[in-house]
Amino acid sequence: MELSREEIYREWLGIKCPGPSYYGLLGLPELELDPQVILHAGRRVKRKLRAYQIGPYRKQALDLLAEVGQAVAVLTSEEKRAAYDRDLRGRWKSVAEELYRAHCDGASLGAPVLETWLGACVARGVPVTRVLPAILRRMGANLKGWPPHGAHQLALPVGLLLYRDAVILGQCLHIGTLERRAEAVKHIQQTLGVPEGLARLVAEEVSRSLHLFARSRFVAQAKRDPEAYLVRLGRRVHRYGGHLGRRAGVLVTVAGLLGVPRKGLERVFEQVAEPAARVSAARKAARAWRGATGEAKGAVQWLRSRPQVAVVVLALGVGMAVLSLAVLVASGVWNPWKGGVDVTAPPEESPPAPAPDPAPAPAPSPAPPVERKPPRVARPVEGPLPPVAAPTEEELQSLEGFIKKYPSGKAPGPAEGDTQPTPGVKPPGGRRPGGKMPTFFNVPAERAPDKTPSKAPETPAPK
User: Residue 138's closest CA among 104, 97, 107?
Assistant: First the structure.
């Protein structure tokens, strides 16, 4: 005969929930953080299950041992535990909403309905005390249907939330004696009109996981700045439609739990009694910011689902940028090749740089004297000139014939391209090729001076 999984949980491990979480399977409070505590709880559960390995329930015991090992492996890994906790919170909220629709919709809302609803949540493994703030945020619009309770005229779920905070503060903050703190928590329960069954449910869950509740943010704020926490508590009462008079019982009692003196309590009342214009403006701004953020996220998701639209928008943006740059370059406003300088403008004349101070030149070394030869000059003919012979008769006749034939005194040259001299005709200038310049009257021509500059003698290099 085989047992069902619910019977195994109830008879072997003492778990009443039909589908416990990994924390409930190990007998731990929900959302436990200490890995050593988790390992110790896993070893304790495994010792219980090994007693059923020998017998007719061997297969079921082995399956449950594998489940316990998986639970320990998930809860001792930070990444896996964080993912599991997110999924677990989502399941808790969905179960609470489902049970709220089943027990509270269409019924006369009151204390019995609330006890039935939260009792069903506990039976399904939902930690009501831990999930209660999230539940109230989700059902904020439905709180107006609840009848007011207690001295502050608050809906019963809101009063239960305030009582939960008072229980956590009374057990986590050891300010004053235990009897005084217990009396303060009892007074808050009566002021808010919380029934005994709900108060017992909250107190038992807080006491089971007190070390986890001590890490809550509002507990840290109450330790660091108790007056700021009291102001926050008073504004919460106003936000949920409650009446907070001058002698508000909840604020006075919580101030006693936190050890706030009378003067500090007076300052808290002054801040709570201020007009809520700034608070409402801040809420409106926060609401507008959330709306804008939601719209931006929706736009991003829409673009992700349609990548072709993003490509077209990107191409249009790049095209507009290129067109703008082309217009700037064409108009001469921007020149990328000259570093942004307009080349059409005349260049600015830069002032002349000051002349550097002349450095003293080194004294030249004396060069050796160079001997220069005097230019060659034609020496005059010394002595009497040689006698000149008188022209003969033939020479005179030929000269007269030449003068008559060429009155200009110049004989015509050969035609172009005629390289051979004409016989009997002298070349221009009276010089024949290969001959010497003729001399008239046998007078020798004077020798022209040599104009070629004489070379200076090479001076030896100084040693």
Answer: 97
Question: Which of 96, 98, 87, 70 shows the shortest CA–CA distance to 31?
Answer: 87
Tokens 């964080």 belong to which residue?
82
370: Cβ contacts below 8 Å, ≥ 6 apart: 456, 457, 459
Contacts of 126 (CB under 8 A, 6+ apart): 92, 95, 96
Which of 143, 50, 131, 38 minimizes the C-alpha distance to 90?
A: 131
SS3 label, residue 159: helix
Q: Are 411 and 424 in contact (CB under 8 A)?
A: no
Element (H, E) at 188: helix 178-192
Name the token pair of 338: 């000259």
Query: In degrees rounded to 5, what are phi and psi of residue 148?
Result: -70, 150
| CA distance linking residue 241 with residue 143, whole number of Å | 10
Q: How far apart, in whole angstroms, are the C-alpha atoms of residue 146 and residue 193?
A: 13
Is residue 413 classed as helix, strand or coil in its secondary structure?
coil
Q: What is the mean pLDDT of residues 270-293?
A: 68
Q: Extract the tokens encoding 39.
A: 């390992």
Rounded to an integer, what distance in angstroms lies between the CA atom of residue 443 and that of residue 381? 14
pLDDT tens-place string over residues 139-188 = 776 777 788 888 888 888 888 999 999 999 998 888 888 889 999 999 98
Give me the sign of the Cα torsion angle 422, 424, 427, 433. positive
Q: Please state the domain extents for the chain.
A: 5-76, 90-274, 280-319
* 417: pLDDT strictly greater than 50: no
Which of the 8 DSSP states describes residue 77?
S
Dihedrals phi, psi of 209, to nearest 5 degrees = -130, 55
Q: In a 3-state reduction of DSSP, which class is residue 155? A: strand
Residues recorded for the chain:
463
pLDDT digits (tens, 9 = 90+) for 120-146: 888 888 888 888 888 777 777 677 778
